[in-house]
Amino acid sequence: APEAVPESWLECDLPEADTVVVPSNWQMHGYDAPIYTNVTYPITVNPPFVPTENPTGCYSLTFNVDESWLQEGQRRIIADSRGGGLRRLRIQRQGIHPASPSF
């Protein structure tokens, strides 16, 4: 469940974290049972309420940007075209809040 993820999970190095190929999903790497939408959905659908038992995964990606990106007064747009879900972006461990939780 999302509530079980510690707030500090991204504030430290993750030396014991597993590596998965992306784009992909954790079910295809053995971390949960795959969900097929042509059969009964395994989670009760009751919008806008989210069930307590809600499969949750956390992904971390580290990348470097050119020094010129860090110049004051520059505007940068980070696009994420994956469907659904909530994303939290942190740059140098500072939270960046998107205009919308999903794109």
Note down, in words, how this protein is organized.
It is a single chain. With about 100 residues, the chain is low in regular secondary structure. It has one domain (about 1-5, about 20-95): Galactose-binding domain-like (Jelly Rolls, Sandwich), CATH 2.60.120.260. Helix content is about 0%, strand content about 5%. It contains no helices and 2 strands. The chain has strands at about 90, 95. A two-stranded antiparallel sheet has the order 1-2. The model has no long low-confidence stretch (mean pLDDT about 75).
Question: Characteristics of this structure?
Answer:
hydrolase, Jelly Rolls, little secondary structure, two-stranded antiparallel ribbon, glycosidase, 103 residues, beta-galactosidase activity, Glyco_hydro_2_N
CATH superfamily: Galactose-binding domain-like
Count of helices?
Answer: 0
Give the termini distance in whole angstroms.
22 Å
Number of structural units classed as domains = 1
Average pLDDT number:
73
Shape verdict: elongated
Write the element-wise H/E pattern from the N-terminal end onward. Answer: EE
Report the portion of residues in β strands. 5-15%
- What is Rg? 17 Å
What helical percentage do the residues reach? under 10%
How many β-strand runs?
Answer: 2
Q: State the CATH class.
A: Mainly Beta
- In the sheet with the most strands, the strands line up as 1-2
